[in-house]
Amino acid sequence: MPNIKSAKKRVLVTEKKTMENKAIKSALKTQIKKFLAAVDAGDKALAEKLYSETVSAIDSAASKGILHKNNAANKKAKLAKKLAAIAA
Length: 88
Description:
The mean pLDDT is 96. The chain is elongated. The longest helix is centred in the N-terminal third of the chain and has 37 residues, at 5-41. It has helices spanning 5-41, 44-63, 69-87. 86% of the residues lie in helices and 0% in strands. It is mainly α. Helix 1 (5-41) runs parallel beside helix 3 (69-87) and helix 2 (44-63) runs antiparallel to helix 3 (69-87). The chain has one domain (5-87): CATH 1.20.58.110.
């Protein structure tokens, strides 16, 4: 346990940010799972709608530093490939 006031504050701030990051990451994973479920079901219209929402969520997480920009690009490319496969 920290004894210095500023160190105590850092612990509290870090815990709060960690919880925010976990919530965003969890919501992102849920969004990706919804998209993949729509793709597996073969529902093209729903998959296209969810694709834009999912890409937006990935971009948001990347801009906040939760995902690395290359990791975000990789995820978006994989999702786009799956969407293209269902459209074909």
